[in-house]
Amino acid sequence: MTEQKSLNLLAGVRILAFTQFLLGPAACRYLADMGADVIKIEPPGRGAWERSWAGADLFMNGVSAFFMLANRNLRSVTLN
Asked: pLDDT by residue (tens digit) across 22-69?
């Protein structure tokens, strides 16, 4: 067996993500997995609406598990 090495194909690339729900965050998550620095831009106040939406009503510290999984490896900022 060969050891899998983490992909850093996009190291040094910064991406601003203005995405929501599932498809956009999933694409950004893959880019982040490949080493890109992805910054999710969220509206001020409450942040992205999917932070408070969970189909299975599963939350951790007030944030939906769906949001945490869909936005893995992304940083977030709010912008007005």
From this structure: 889 989 999 999 999 999 999 998 788 888 888 788 999 988 988 888
Distance between the two ends of the chain, CA-based, in angstroms? 50
Which pairing describes strands 75-78 and 37-42: parallel, antiparallel, or unpaired? parallel
**Which amino acid is located at 7 in the chain?**
L
Residues 6+ apart with CB under 8 A from 35: 6, 7, 8, 9, 10, 11, 12, 13
Amino acid at 63: V
**pTM of this structure:** 0.79
